[in-house]
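User:
Hi there, any thoughts?
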Amino acid sequence: MPTPHAGIFSIALRKFLIIFALSLRALGIGAQSTFDYFYLEAEKCRLQEDYSSAMDLYRHCLDINPEAPEALYNIGLLHLYLHSDSLGTAYIRRACEHDANNPYYLETLAALYLDKRDAEAAIPVLEKMTTLQSRRSDILLQLVQLYSTVGATDKAIGALSRIELLEGPSPQVSVEKFRLYKEKGQLDSAFVQLEALCADAPHDMNLRVVVGNLYMQAGDTVKALQIYDEVRRQEPTITSLQLAMMDYYKDSGQDALYNTMRDSLLFHSESPAQLRVLMLRSYIADVQRDSTYAPRLEAAFDTLLARPQQDAEVLIMKAAYQVYSKQPQEELMKTMRQVLEVDPGNETALRELLQYYAEQNDGKGVEDISRRGLNYHPEEIAYAYYLGMALAEQKKLTDAAEVLQQGLRVRTDEMHPHLVSNVFGVLGDIYYQQHKEQEAFAAYDSALVYMEDNIMCLNNYAYYLSLKGEQLDKAEEMSYRTIRQEPENITYLDTYAWILFMKGDYAHARTYMDKVVNPEKTDEELLSDERLMGNLIEHSGDIYAHVGEPETALRLWKLAWQKGDGTCTPQLRKKIKRKKYIKTP
């Protein structure tokens, strides 16, 4: 890409090129040789990714020969690379005009038109390509699609005939010609294609069923059933025939035969998983139309799941139905655990169970699923994140840090920055608990690089800085960002008030702390508030001790002691005994 000073450099280069070109001419070197020299220099710059210089050199080539297709083409490519699509297309179109037989130029131009879905512009370019490369059936196939788009059905049929000449008859081409003839209303010609299909592959029963289906779609039920009967005599259990008959029974209102055929496919021991899923979807569709069909579907699930499961497809379908029918979450999770018994690495089941256990605050469940997920999908950082948190809650800090570090080692640019930020944030919390303060702050800095508004990280980082009495201005700025986002969060308000306290701004500290611990509430109200941890009430007491209200401070300290939740400082007892604030070392 161009450097910051590419514009100045390009002007200087252009002046030099003009002088140099005049020198070459003065030496008697012809225009073509001059053009070749500058074109090669342009190519060197392009290969070296010096696109600004390459652009200037290509333009100089056009000064020498305005109709040079190679220069026009390469300037066009550079404009496309720089996202100047309309200008790039214009240059490439000019290159094609001056070198109409260059298949590479034409293919690029056609791709540009196709990308814009401009069929009218793309068709003549592709037609020109077919005259130059008559054996390229991929171009003809692209033309078939474009002709169909613009309603040129005869041309589409002609292109398909050319493909047949190149590659021989094929079911795909015959079926498409059938569709086009049918679209034109030429049913005789359409059916000729189907008869040809049967004649070309008389022993391919699946293909004959396809032909029967096409007759059925065309409204010739008699002919379709005749073909189905012929297939049944030779291969009565062929799946495609059974599916075709199912559709026929359903469309003709023969519900009993339809249900019998469907159940035979669903419950047959040798039916592949995809076929069973297809049948179950039809059952679910019945339930969606009429809820009275639900017991039949549930009975079908019970019958299938009573057998040993070779794959998880039926269980996944059951889970999907449970979500649709709003069954209890515990039932859904039971199915997800069954999925893992059959397919231990199933990502859908792992994600659902992990989310469920996290919402239930089930640390053991989170740990179990995270370990499974990390074992089967070590590249997924989410499993490392949840496992790290689960281990940290169990105070297994060394193990938690190791897991999180492992997750960060496999991070990629495609990972969601929010998730990566959270991993760094939790790692920072763990380092701080391990008294590795510098490592903790480095982890927090990394977390904020990935997501600058990670408020949990901002809060913890700010609070730990305040406890050290360091970088208090930075701590205040980070903490203020958290209360702007969540102005009612008492944890974030406490952090901000405490930072103001550490800065000696006691009046403002009290204003914010009163939103956390309101001293006008009764002792019973404060003690019964489950949100208020002992350390929050102690902080409030410390602040009141510095605004000249020692009685309120003493009352709050005593309430903090009564909380007895282990969150207060070791100095709290001395504060109460001496009736004054004692700084924590």
Notes: Residues 1-30 have pLDDT under 50 and may be disordered. Residues 517-585 form one domain. The longest helix spans residues 6-26. The chain has 33 helices and no strands.
